[in-house]
Design a protein that fits this description.
Blueprint: H1 3-9, H2 11-27, H3 41-44, H4 47-61, E1 67-70, E2 81-84, H5 86-106, H6 114-132, H7 136-154, H8 160-191, H9 196-206, H10 209-227, H11 235-239
Antiparallel strand pairs: 1-2
Helix pairs in contact: 2-4, 2-6, 4-5, 5-6, 6-7, 7-8, 8-10
Length: about 240
Amino acid sequence: MTLVDTLRADAPMLLVLFPLIGAAIAALGKVVPRARFTRYLGVVALAPAVVVLAVTLRPLYAGGAPAVYAVGGFTMEPGITLMLDGLAWISSALIMVITAIVAVASLPHRRFDATYQFFLLMTAAGMQSVVVTTDLFTMFVSFEIVAIGVYVLIAWERTAQGLLASLKYLFLSSVGILFFLLGVFLVYRDLGTLSLLTITRGASASWTPRVAASAVAALCVGIGVRTAFVPFHTWLPEAH
């Protein structure tokens, strides 16, 4: 198997792993505070992920099968399976582009140090995990990773406006994730699974319309608050 084949096969995991490795190295900035390289990790750590996206583009859009990665080799529940298909590729590319722009824009400013790079890359890794996961529990964990990073990044400059916006996001996102967990509960109670692939195959036969609507509504509210879908976007202008 060539390097390109390996990158394609492991693409879903690598898209999450590279930002995590960069975040781990950035954490060393606390140990070696004078290490200048940590300020560039936001850019350097994303470069390999861009390569992964480049080598998977053509197979995905030429009719090839999605790249599927079973974490730890466990293909059955409760194992974690990650999948990169066409829609996930677009979402992943947008995450990488925006994160890279933010990382480059922060380079001239000393206040965006290694700690900042750590939270930026952790947020990127969490968003990538949301995109490629195929089960609701891993999605919940991924959203929480994103939330921790976003709390800190919003309030990074410690202005009164930033701290207030961060606190507002904390409250609203906490309420939103409760709705998400309610949706997860309804799904697992009625279907006995959290796998999105299994849910799409078995939902029509096992769910009553009322319960299905309640579960989907709860999940949409939870995701909507975390990702600022209209009309759950009220925290976003203040955060920016």
